[in-house]
Amino acid sequence: MALNAVIGVDIGTSSSKGVLVALDGTLLRSAVRAHTVDRPAPGHVEMAADVWWTEFVSLVRELTADGAADVRAVGVSGMGPCVLLTDADDVPLRPAILYGVDTRATEQITRLEHRLGAEQIRARCGSGLSSQAAGAKIAWVADEEPELFARARRLYMPSSWLVRKLTGSYVLDHHSASQTTPLYDTVARSWYDPWAGLICPDLELPPLRWSGEAAGTVTAEAARLTGLPAGIPVITGTVDAWAEALSVGAHTVGDLMLMYGTTMFLVHTVPDLLTAPALWSTVGALPGTRNLAGGMATSGAVTAWLRDLCGAPDYADLLHEAEKSGTGANGLLMLPYFAGERTPVMDPQARGVIAGLTLSHTRGDLYRAALEATAYGVRHNIEAIEAVGGDIRRVVAVGGGTQGRLWTRIVSDVTGRPQEVRTTSIGASYGGALLAAQLIGDASVDAWNPVQETVVPEPGAAARYEELYRLYRDLYPASADIVHALAAHQTR
Prior knowledge:
alpha+beta; single chain; FGGY-family carbohydrate kinase; five-stranded mixed sheet; 492 residues; Nucleotidyltransferase, domain 5; kinase activity
């Protein structure tokens, strides 16, 4: 007799991940499809939507190949906010423009702020305009590709694109919509027609639902392509970081989720709307919730770059060498702004800096400096959250970077905060599976994914990191003019 199960699939920046999970939370099988983003011009980061659906089908086929599980529901999530524009027949008109790592819309941000008012945007939308704002990227397409934009009729993100392909439904979750600034009114929790009409008057903006609500059921055609049973429900889904938070239960007031991935993301749940120029205020994935969020433009992307650059066979070797390097990376200090920086710096022209290099430094020192740089960035974001009234009572870590424990220990040492690490750290795909299980029955995160350990700060490292953190904060303003000038000369 086949075991009842759910599937969760997440479309990420560097890979798509899928999990097959029994209804009691047992991870039965997982699969990954690696991919790369396209960078057609400086500051432009894109991906073809065909990749999302092709990898989804491939993942589902692999997860269900032995026929041992009876899939009862499907969960989806993906990187975001992204801008995929299609015509009226759902044919993509261009590759999707990705989230805050794509920094192309600076002129549109300036123009929209001048026309609508920066304070008015933040008051209505929760967040100001930045490289994270999907609405500004839609305005870029209108300005730079007007003939293409004239044919655009629908807006998708990775999760909503999978929903469309699976069910035929055109919907978007409230959280993803709240990152389309300035198109969504985060107070009223609805599209804001006056500004949407100004920026994209011919777009049919999707109806809004909450992430765990059913978007529809698998069609006969989607069942034929994927092997999934026709008629099973598919959740509306959401942005990957919010699905990750759900996978580890970090969605009650006072929780802060740290997502250790290609980028580092922070999601803090707050009781009421909080806004800040250097952070993002969004509605949550669950009804009635609100978040204050931050995101670094790189974290795991820098460690992957170092691994490839240094020819290291795998991360385990680098982690061992970084462990030997010790606190402070033998006097190296890094700014991890290799793709500009999002919160709280909000500077798309920022660049990476490695200070203190000598001929005696090793790749282990460099790797340690990268891990520590991410930790300093996390502390900078935490201080920004607390400065506007955030009340962080619990920190929960999730994502591939929690493996090996060195990175999480460094973050706890730098921030002075314990971090819960739950049994399953796969993240967004597991969170999507949990929402799918909750849609069809009872499933609690504590039963599915109990706390495995708590990483606590080491008192001996605190004083050293306090000194280095102050140097880290001084290094950006001291080098900003130089790296801005260099950024103007970069062609890729």
